[in-house]
Recover the amino acids of this structure.
């Protein structure tokens, strides 16, 4: 039987046994799993509530539970098939059609029915029947009158007269007193759509339904709270403000239909956001300073390596420094004592009323509501004594610096540590103006996926950081993106009292000049390329330096004047840099292979905080031929670079002792 025959059947009128084969098909692992249907339904229809969707993604439910939730809603076979058809294979939709064929064939044979048909009825309760779901209008009615379609079977009283041809049923035969009236329904015609609106315009949300009832009442909701006076199918948002941002939905119901499942209809949830021109700043707030501390630990001495963390650290540093105009303190691979020092450094370089952002990517765990950050030198069976207690360190920053806003981004696992059996108090003393964003929910893991350049959390985060909207609203976009990964969900906790944004303007406060000078010293490298001239052969080459992280600089060399010599090339001597116990990587943050001696590509010098001297000797190898076919000559040149960050780092060394 053609699948179109079933398009208008309402799912909750069918027995659940019909969906048995469909559930078995959706329970298999792979691209045709039920989770793909759930995600598509949520993306296009907001079919589930946010909490319901998170629970479904996190739990190991059976496909039958999902199908049951869909069936309970007032949707048709066509609606379900529409989303089953989005799967890579057609096994699920075929299973449903075959089950419907078998069910209806058995029903018809048992009661000697003909094929199923579609009843169409008018507000005057006059009916006709048609063998297919077409629009048939009785001759005694004007063609413009509204009508409704309900899938169903011919009743036994009708089939006694016309057992095999329901199309022969006349209009008059359907008007007798024995004809049961069709089930009254509310049909959704138009759903509200997501809106991205300007604060100077008005926006309209529409939820249009039709019914054979005339007493339909509407009520709009904003973030699950009724919108006062919103009793019409259209909701007008006049000059929407930041408070207008959120989820909207509408419920239409008919009092005359009572508590019948067909007596009300709920719209999809539409998200309304305010889009501002960057030149029209949405926030009335300014920051006295903007400073961020980023730590990315990817190379552990005794624990699993996390290759994506170094790239996460670099992309966040670039966005915050270049686009959001934060002063960034970015460190890769810090041990226990070094992590303590950078928190002290962060406090020393912060002033009252600043915006503070903290990011940590690496190993971590959570016990009793307290998060612990794992340094690179932690043992394999680490406990709290080997780690940094995040909440305690961050409370100290808030207490001393009194920032106007703190954003905490923790890209760690939050599972409990089986090696740490101590119990700790979960009490915190954070005041307002702080937002926590965890890469995953409590007692869950955060993941790196093979083939991705960045971690799941940071890949979504970097897309939305520059949105000029309230921080917790910006993070809601990140939550939606990460949910699509199907492996973790971002959790946000906020005590933010005002509409502060990462894009807020900087209005330098008291003490800004001094802390900015200190920060600049820590990132001081030659701004212009350094020209190195070789007097004996007339060759010259340039060396460029770039501050990538606070403890990482990039070195690039290129020839400027070859003096007409053949095969004139300049290299960075990796072997001699390694001899100085300097850690190196390529421009993407990957380790340089052990056998590499020379490179013409940019080289990054890492772990500057571990250098004994502030002066670094950077060797270069010059290769050239004086004449074609002549021997290749090699000559080494050394450039001495003075790194202020080393001296500034040493000035931060205090009596930081490891906890026992």
């Amino acid at each position: 039987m053609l699948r179109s025959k079933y398009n208008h059947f309402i799912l909750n009128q069918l027995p659940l046994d019909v969906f048995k084969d469909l559930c078995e098909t959706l329970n298999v692992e792979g691209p045709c799993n039920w989770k793909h249907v759930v995600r598509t339904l949520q993306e296009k229809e907001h079919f589930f509530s946010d909490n319901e969707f998170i629970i479904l993604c996190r739990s190991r439910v059976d496909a039958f539970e999902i199908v049951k939730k869909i069936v309970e809603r007032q949707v048709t076979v066509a609606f379900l098939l529409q989303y089953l058809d989005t799967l890579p294979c057609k096994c699920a939709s075929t299973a449903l059609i075959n089950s419907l064929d078998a069910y209806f064939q058995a029903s018809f044979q048992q009661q000697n029915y003909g094929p199923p048909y579609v009843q169409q009825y008018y507000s005057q309760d006059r009916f006709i029947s048609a063998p297919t779901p077409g629009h048939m209008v009785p001759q005694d009615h004007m063609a413009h009158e509204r009508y409704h379609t309900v899938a169903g079977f011919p009743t036994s009283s009708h089939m006694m007269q016309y057992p095999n041809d329901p199309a022969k049923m006349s209009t008059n035969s359907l008007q007798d007193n024995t004809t049961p009236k069709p089930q009254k329904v509310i049909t959704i015609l138009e759903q509200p759509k997501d809106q991205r609106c300007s604060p100077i315009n008005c926006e309209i949300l529409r939820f249009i339904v039709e019914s054979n009832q005339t007493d339909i009442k509407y009520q709009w909701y904003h973030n699950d709270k009724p919108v006062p006076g919103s009793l019409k199918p259209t909701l007008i948002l006049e000059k929407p403000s930041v408070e207008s941002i959120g989820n909207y939905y509408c419920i239409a119901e008919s009092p005359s239909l009572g508590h019948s499942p067909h007596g009300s209809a709920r719209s999809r949830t539409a998200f309304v956001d305010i889009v501002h021109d960057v030149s029209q700043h949405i926030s009335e707030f300014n920051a006295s300073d903007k400073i961020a501390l980023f730590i990315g630990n990817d190379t552990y001495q005794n624990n699993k390596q996390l290759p994506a963390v170094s790239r996460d650290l670099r992309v966040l540093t670039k966005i915050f420094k270049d686009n959001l105009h934060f002063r960034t303190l970015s460190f890769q691979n810090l041990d226990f004592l070094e992590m303590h020092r950078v928190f002290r450094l962060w406090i020393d370089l912060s002033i009252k009323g600043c915006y503070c952002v903290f990011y940590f990517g690496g190993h971590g765990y959570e016990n009793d509501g307290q998060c612990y950050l794992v340094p690179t030198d932690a043992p394999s069976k680490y406990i709290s004594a080997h780690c940094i207690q995040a909440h305690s360190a961050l409370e100290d920053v808030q207490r001393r610096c009194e920032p106007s806003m703190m954003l905490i981004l923790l890209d760690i696992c939050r599972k409990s540590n089986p090696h740490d059996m101590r119990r700790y108090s979960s009490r915190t003393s954070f005041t307002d103006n702080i937002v926590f964003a965890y890469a995953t929910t409590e007692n869950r893991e955060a993941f790196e996926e093979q083939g991705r350049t960045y971690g799941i959390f940071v890949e979504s985060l970097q897309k939305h950081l520059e949105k000029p909207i309230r921080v917790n609203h910006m993070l809601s976009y990140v939550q939606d993106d990460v949910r699509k990964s199907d492996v973790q969900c971002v959790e946000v906790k906020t005590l933010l009292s005002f509409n502060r944004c990462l894009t807020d303007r900087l209005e330098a406060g008291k003490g800004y000049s001094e802390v900015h000078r200190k920060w600049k010293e820590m990132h001081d490298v030659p701004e212009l390329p350094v020209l190195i001239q070789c007097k004996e052969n007339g060759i010259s080459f340039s060396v460029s330096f770039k501050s990538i992280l606070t403890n990482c600089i990039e070195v690039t060399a290129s020839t400027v004047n070859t003096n007409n010599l053949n095969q004139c090339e300049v290299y960075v001597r990796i072997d001699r840099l390694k001899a100085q116990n300097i850690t190196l990587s390529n421009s993407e943050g990957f380790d340089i292979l052990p056998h590499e001696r020379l490179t013409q590509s940019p080289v990054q010098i890492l772990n500057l905080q571990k250098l004994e001297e502030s002066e670094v000797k950077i060797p270069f190898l010059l290769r050239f031929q004086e004449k074609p076919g002549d021997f290749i000559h090699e000559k080494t040149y050394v450039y001495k670079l003075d790194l202020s960050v080393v001296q500034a780092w040493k000035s931060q060394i205090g009596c930081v002792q490891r906890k026992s």
Remarks:
- Confidence is low (pLDDT under 50) at residues 111-184, 277-283, 654-660.
- The chain has five domains: 3-111, 117-175, 186-274, 286-520, 530-642.
- Residues 91-111 form the longest helix (21 residues).
